């Protein structure tokens, strides 16, 4: 896609798509969004479901997704406090994209070489 100078009032789709990609860029955001697309999760469930993510990084990524309006956080006044994360209505609009990625992976995923994880904490067994 070419980055062209646009006349006044015209939309530069390259710049707009860069903004869209930035919302979901990073090692963990797409994985978090995919999990939350499946169902509501608590913090600990997300951390266990994403091998290699640290508590600090999960917190940072969830805060960014929340600030961008893609994830909502609900705090329940219980002892101990319970916090749940879910995708927002705006993020539900990404559903067809998630489904297309799933279909693509089902067709081509076996042809993609497995790469060893070199970042984050080691996944724990059990």
Structure description:
It contains six helices and three strands, in the order H-H-E-H-H-E-E-H-H. The model has no long low-confidence stretch (mean pLDDT 87). It is globular and about 50 Å long. A hairpin with a 5-residue loop joins strand 2 and strand 3. It has a three-stranded antiparallel β-sheet with strand order 1-3-2. It has a domain of 72 residues: Arc Repressor Mutant, subunit A. It has 126 residues and is mostly helical.
Total strand segments? 3
CATH class type of the domain at 25-96? Mainly Alpha
Q: Please identify the structural class as seen in this structure.
A: mainly alpha
Helix content: 40-55%
Mean pLDDT equals 87
Q: How far from one another are the termini?
A: 46 Å
By DSSP (H or I, 4+ residues per run), the number of helices equals 6
CATH topology of the domain at 25-96: Arc Repressor Mutant, subunit A
Low-confidence stretches: none
What fraction of the residues are assigned to beta strands by DSSP? 5-15%
The largest sheet has its strands arranged as: 1-3-2
CATH superfamily of the domain at 25-96: Winged helix-like DNA-binding domain superfamily/Winged helix DNA-binding domain
Taken in chain order, the helices and strands follow as HHEHHEEHH
Tell me, briefly, the overall form.
globular
């Amino acid at each position: 896609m070419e980055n062209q100078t646009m006349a006044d009032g015209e939309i530069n789709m390259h710049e707009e798509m860069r903004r869209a990609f930035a919302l979901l860029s990073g090692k963990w955001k797409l994985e978090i969004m995919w999990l939350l697309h499946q169902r509501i999760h608590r913090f600990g469930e997300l951390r266990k479901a994403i091998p290699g993510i640290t508590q600090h990084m999960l917190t940072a990524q969830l805060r960014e997704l929340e600030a961008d309006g893609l994830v909502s956080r609900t705090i329940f006044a219980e002892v101990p406090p319970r916090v749940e994360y879910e995708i927002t209505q705006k993020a539900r609009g990404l559903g067809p994209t998630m489904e297309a990625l799933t279909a693509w992976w089902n067709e081509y995923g076996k042809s993609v070489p497995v790469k060893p994880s070199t970042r984050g904490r080691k996944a724990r067994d059990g």
